[in-house]
Amino acid sequence: MQVEETPLKDCFLIKPKIFEDHRGIFLETYHRKRLAELTGIDAEFVQDNQSVSSYGVLRGLHYQKGEFAQTKIVRVIFGKVLDVVVDLRPDSPTFKKTYSVILDDQNLHQLYVPKGFGHGFLTLSEKSVFAYKCDDYYKPGSEGGIIYNDPDLKINWNFPENELILSEKDRNLPTLKEAFE
Ligand SMILES: Cc1cn([C@H]2C[C@H](O)[C@@H](COP(=O)(O)OP(=O)(O)O[C@H]3O[C@@H](C)C(=O)[C@@H](O)[C@H]3O)O2)c(=O)[nH]c1=O
């Protein structure tokens, strides 16, 4: 496993070691001790989630508020997504900065998303199977979000606007300014 820093503080790109032979591939998708050694951060994950999306589905940008904030390790089991995070920690040197990365079933990269980040992804393949670990439980009512096309964040989704598929909830998320001022 290799861990690379991203431009955002405390957010890491994880590149698992892939073993390939005539049967296919093998990889360890999570190794608590090694990850803690390489990142200096040791989260205790308590919930695993999986979602399936079709082409053009954009989920996000989501976070849980305050004491229910979640560290996540996100990855793609099948297909390809553009994964996007934004640092929403006002005291962070990278506050309001975003980072985008392709996660797919070929590179098998994972993103370590710290507490206090907003997270979203857009499915670029016909279908994606997305999986993630969380270090706190889902808490309905504590969900927060920022609209995907926030005028200050200016995330380049690089995708035709009229082909995006969003939930009603995500279409009505506030802007960064509305959420934080
Ligand atoms: C996230 C979540 C949802 N649910 C339920 C609530 C709802 O009825 C249904 C679908 O929920 P949502 O529309 O919020 O699902 P979704 O839009 O996929 O939400 C996820 O988006 C990505 C980007 C994240 O980063 C995640 O943390 C999570 O917020 O599943 C749970 O029971 N447990 C959970 O942990």
Trace the largest sheet across and list its strands: 1-2-10-7-12-5
Globally, the shape reads: globular
- CATH superfamily membership: Jelly Rolls
From the N-terminal CA to the C-terminal CA, the straight-line distance is: 40 Å
Order of helices and strands: EEEEHEEEEEEEEEHH
> Structurally, how many domains make up the residues?
1
What about the largest sheet?
Answer: 6 strands, antiparallel
Rounded to the nearest angstrom, the radius of gyration is: 16 Å
Organism: Gramella jeungdoensis
Function: Catalyzes the epimerization of the C3' and C5'positions of dTDP-6-deoxy-D-xylo-4-hexulose, forming dTDP-6-deoxy-L-lyxo-4-hexulose.
Subunit structure: Homodimer.
Pathway: Carbohydrate biosynthesis; dTDP-L-rhamnose biosynthesis
Describe this structure in words.
The chain is mostly beta strands. It has one domain: Jelly Rolls (Sandwich), CATH 2.60.120. The protein has helices at 32-39, 168-171, 176-180, and strands spanning 2-5, 12-15, 18-21, 24-27, 47-54, 58-64, 72-78, 80-87, 98-104, 110-113, 117-123, 127-134, 143-145. A 6-stranded antiparallel β-sheet has the order 1-2-10-7-12-5, covered by helices on one side. It has a 5-stranded antiparallel β-sheet with strand order 9-8-11-6-13, with no helix packed on it. It has a two-stranded antiparallel ribbon with strand order 3-4. Strand 1 and strand 2 (12-15) form a beta hairpin. The model has no long low-confidence stretch (mean pLDDT 97). The structure holds dtdp-4-keto-L-rhamnose. Dtdp-4-keto-L-rhamnose binds next to strand 5, strand 6 and strand 11.
